[in-house]
C-alpha cells in the first residue's frame, strides 16, 4: 500500500516539524500550519428520545415521540427538519413509490417497537421480588432479597443503603442459581418490606404487590 | 461488528501502560487526519487510557469511561461514532444515497452502487482511498456521519466494478456500541 505509507510518512513529518518548533505556536499566522489551538468539536445535538442526531430520527422506531420532543425543546431544529420545504427536498432522488414504501416500513417499525416496549414494561411490572429469611443457626438469620435488578436498581447501591439503614453488613452475592441477590445480616425482612412499600431512597417504583416474604429453615437433624 | 455487545462480552478493564499509550497515540496521529492539539483535547496526556477487553480480540479504549476508539486484533484504530460526530474530518469521507440509509441502520455493509449513485459520494481520483482504510460513512442529505466503515476495495475500483461490498460497516448509528455511553 504505497499510498498509505506515504500518508503515514507525511503525518509523521508534520508531527516532527511541529515538535521542533514549539516556540512558533503562539506566533504562527500561516494558514497551512496546523493550528496550535485545538480545533473545536462540532456541537452535535442528540435526540432525547432515540439518542440519534435529530436528522436520523425518521429512520428510528419512535419518530412520533422524537418529533414532539424536538418541537418542544428545539423549535428551530424542528423547523429545519420537518417543515414542508424540507420534506420536499428530502424526496430528492428517491422515487415516489420508494418513498411510500419507506414510510410504510417506518410506521410498521414504530408500531412494533411500541408493542415491544409495552410488553417489556408489563413484564417488568409483573416480575416478582422475594425476601427470604434464612436461618443461620437457631437464633441468627440473614435476609436475602432477590429480583430487585428487574426494576433498574443498582444492587450495590441498594445493599449500601440497607447496610447503613440497619447498621449491619449487606452485600451483593450470587445465589446457587447464579443470580445476584442482596444478603443482609440479621432478620430484617419486615423492615425491608416496609422500605420497599414506602420507596425509600433508590428503592423507587416497585409495586409492593410483587413482594413476597419467604422463610428458609435449615434442614438439619430431626429436632427442628 | 457491534450489532450485539452484551455486558457478558466484556472480559475486563485494565489501565494501559504509558509506553503502550504512547504507541497508540502515535498510530492515531498517523492513521487519522488529526492534529496533535485536537487529539490532546479529546484525550489529554494526563488522562490515562483504559483498555476494555471484549470477545474475539476486540479492544475498546476509553477515557474517563467514555469509549474513544477501538481496534480489532492489530487492525486499524477506529474512532467511535460520537467522536467522529465531533471531529468529522479525521477520516476520509464516503457518502451513501438515501435508499441505503435504512439498510445501514440495520447493520448492512455498503454496496458499491449506493456509493457511486447520484446521491452517493466517493473521494475524487486524486484523493483515492485504497482498500482496507477506515472511512467515515455519511448519508445523502444528512449533516452528520452515520457510521464508520472500512473499504473493501479502492475507491477507484468501486467506480469500475460497481458491484458487491464496497465499504464494510464497522459501527453504525444505533448499534450496541452507540448505546453504551460509558463503560
From TrEMBL, chain A:
Main localization of the protein described in the UniProt heading: cytoplasm
Domain SUI1: residue ranges: 129-200
Keywords: Cytoplasm, Ribonucleoprotein, Ribosomal protein
Bias type Low complexity, positions: 12-36
Compartments it resides in: Cytoplasm
Region (Disordered): 1-39
PROSITE patterns registered for this protein in UniProt: SUI1
The keyword Ribonucleoprotein is assigned to this record: yes
Cited InterPro entries: DENR/SUI1_TIF, DENR_C, DENR_eukaryotes, DENR_N, SUI1, SUI1_dom_sf
Domain notes: The SUI1 domain may be involved in RNA binding.
Family: Belongs to the DENR family.
Oligomer and partners: Interacts with the 40S ribosomal subunit.
Stated name of the protein: Translation machinery-associated protein 22
TrEMBL record, chain B:
Chain ranges of the PUA domain: 92-174
Protein's name in the database: Translation machinery-associated protein 20
Keywords linked to the UniProt accession: Cytoplasm
Family of this protein: Belongs to the TMA20 family.
Matching Pfam families: Pre-PUA, PUA
Main localization of the protein described in the UniProt heading: cytoplasm
Gene: TMA20
Subcellular location: Cytoplasm
Role description: Involved in translation.
